[in-house]
Amino acid sequence: MTAADTPHPARDRLLGTAFRLFYAHGPRGVGIDTVIAESGVAKATLYKHFPRKDDLVLAYLDKVDQAWFGQLRAAARAAGDDPREQLVGMFDALVSACRREGFHGCAFINAAAETNAGSEIHARTVEHKAVVRAWVVDLAQRAGARDPQMLARQITLLVDGGLAAGVLDADPAAAEAAKQAAGALVDEACR
Amino acid sequence: MTAADTPHPARDRLLGTAFRLFYAHGPRGVGIDTVIAESGVAKATLYKHFPRKDDLVLAYLDKVDQAWFGQLRAAARAAGDDPREQLVGMFDALVSACRREGFHGCAFINAAAETNAGSEIHARTVEHKAVVRAWVVDLAQRAGARDPQMLARQITLLVDGGLAAGVLDADPAAAEAAKQAAGALVDEACR
DNA sequence: AGGCTAGCAGACAGGTCTGTCTGTCACAAT
DNA sequence: ATTGTGACAGACAGACCTGTCTGCTAGCCT
After folding, report:
1. Which residues of A touch B180 (CB under 8 A)?
2. Nucleotide nearest to A53 (CA to C1')
3. Mean pLDDT of A140-161
4. Do B136 and B155 meet the contact criterion of CB atoms below 8 Å apart?
5. How far is residue A154's CA from residue A83's CA, in Å, rounded to a whole number?
6. Are B156 and B102 in contact, with CB atoms under 8 Å apart?
7. Burial letters A142-157, b for 16+ CB under 10 A, else e
8. Spatial separation of the C-alpha atoms in residues B143 and B61, rounded to whole Å
C-alpha cells in the first residue's frame, strides 16, 4: 500500500487543512504559506490543484456546504417522518453545532462578509442559501403551511440568526430558543 | 470661521471615511493608506488620534452602535406606546435598512467574523449585542411575556438573521418575514 | 531501462500592509 | 513676537501575501 488509496492525497490534505484554518480565521486571515506549512505540501503542488487562492476557498465552501447541509438533513430525518417535526428537528443540528468545540458561526456568511459583492465567493454563498431554502420550502409545503415561502423564510432566518450569534458566543441557549420559535411558527402556519 | 467648528475636524473626517469604507469592505479589507487618501488627512494625524488601526475600527464600531441602536429605538417608538407593538415595530428599522443603498448586513457581525475570538473587536461586538438584547428583554417584560428572556432571544435572533441575510442579498422580503414572525411570537408569548 | 507523474523544497519577484519618522505650514494665544 | 498645536506631505522599514519558477526525489507503467 503505497499511495494509491486516494487519487490525490496531497489535495485532500490541503483541503482538510484549509477547512480547519479558513473556518477558524476566515479565508482572508490565513495565508497560503500557513496552509502549505500546516499541511506539509509544497507550494507548487497547491497551485497545481488550486491555481488561485480563491479556488481553494471555493473548494472549502463546497466542503462546508456538503457537511452543513448534510447535518441539517440528518437532524430533520432524525425527528421522524412528519414534515412538521422535521422543520423543528433540523434545529438540533444548530444546537449540536453550537456545542462543538471551535464553533464559529456560518462559514458562508463569514466568507461573504469579507468579499465584495459580485465575487465568486459571494455568489457561491447566495447559491448555498438558496439551495437550503428550497429544501425548507419543500418541507413547508409538505407540512401543509398556508404560505410555505413565508414559513421557509422565517425558518431560515432563525437558522441564520443562530449561526450569526455563534460567531460571537456559541450559546446553545440561542439555538434552543430558535428551535422553540420554529415550533411556534410552524404551528401557527399550519393551523 | 476658520476651524473651530469642532474640536478635531480631521478626526471627524477620518471617522466618516472609515465608517463608509469599513462598512463596505470590512475593516480588514481597507488599508490605512486608503483611509487617509479618501479623507485627505495625513498619516501622522491618523496615528495621533488612533494609535493602532484597531482603535479606528473600535471607534467605527461605536459609531455604528449609536446609529443602529438609535434606528432600532426610533422604529420601536414610532410603533406606539404598547410594548407589544414596539417589539414588532422595531423590525421597520430592519426593513428600511434593507432598502438602503449599500446595505451590507451587520457591521458588528462582519467585523467579528474576521477577528479571532478574544480580540477587543470581538468583545465590543458581544457587548453591543448584549446591550440590544437587554433593551429587548425590558420591552418583553413590559409586554407581559411569560418568559421575557426567551422572547427577547427569539426577537434578537430574527433581527440578527435578517441582518446576516443582508450580507448576501438585501431582500426586504426577508425583513418583512422577520417582522411577521416577530408578531406571531409576541402573540404567542403574551397569550 | 526509460519516461511520466505526483510531490517536496525553497528561492524569488512584485505588491500591499502597518506603523514610524522627518520636515513644513498655518493659526492662535500669550 | 514667540511659542505651541493641529495638521499636511511623504519617505521609509519591516513584515506578509500571492503566485512563479527551478531543482530534486520516488514510485509506476510500459
Report:
1. 150, 154
2. D18
3. 98
4. yes
5. 16
6. no
7. ebebeebebbbbbbbb
8. 30
Q: Are A82 and A135 in contact (CB under 8 A)?
A: no
**Residue A3 in 3-state DSSP?**
coil
By C-alpha to C1' distance, C7 is nearest to: A45
Q: How near does any CA of chain B get to the CA of A77, in Å?
A: 24
Residue B76 pLDDT level (bands cut at 50, 70, 90): very high
What values do phi and psi take at B97, rounded to 5?
A: -60, -40
Phi-psi group of B80: left, alpha or beta (phi > 0 → left; psi -120 to 50 → alpha; rest → beta):
left
Query: Exposed e or buried b for every residue in A94-121, given b needs 16+ CB within 10 A?
Result: bbebbeeeebbbbbbbbbbbbbeeeeeb
Helices A53-78, A91-99: axis angle to 10 degrees equals 120
Which secondary-structure segment (H or E) carries A30?
none
Q: Cβ of A70 < 7 Å from strand D?
A: no
The answer to whether A185 faces chain B, any CB pair under 8 Å, is yes
Residue B45 makes CB contacts below 8 A (sequence gap 6+) with B10, B14
The one-letter amino acid at A39: S
The residue of A157, A187, A188 whose CB has the most chain B CBs within 10 angstroms, and thus the best one to mutate to test that interface, is A157
- pLDDT tens, position by position, B129-180: 999 999 999 999 999 999 999 999 999 999 999 999 888 888 899 999 999 9
pLDDT above 50 (res B15) = yes
Task: Show which of residues 59-98 on chain B sit within 8 Å of chain A, judged by CB atoms.
Answer: none
Nearest Cα neighbor of B8 from B16, B20, B58, B22 is B16
Is residue A7's pLDDT more than 80?
no
The DSSP annotation for A36-93 comes to HHHHT--HHHHHHH-SSHHHHHHHHHHHHHHHHHHHHHHHHHHT-S-HHHHHHHTHHH
Q: In this predicted structure, what is the pLDDT of residue B1?
A: 36
Reported as a single tens digit per residue, the pLDDT across A54-112 is 999 999 999 999 999 999 999 999 999 999 999 999 999 999 999 999 999 999 999 99
pLDDT computed for residue B153 by the predictor = 98
Phi, psi of B52 (to 5 degrees): -125, 160
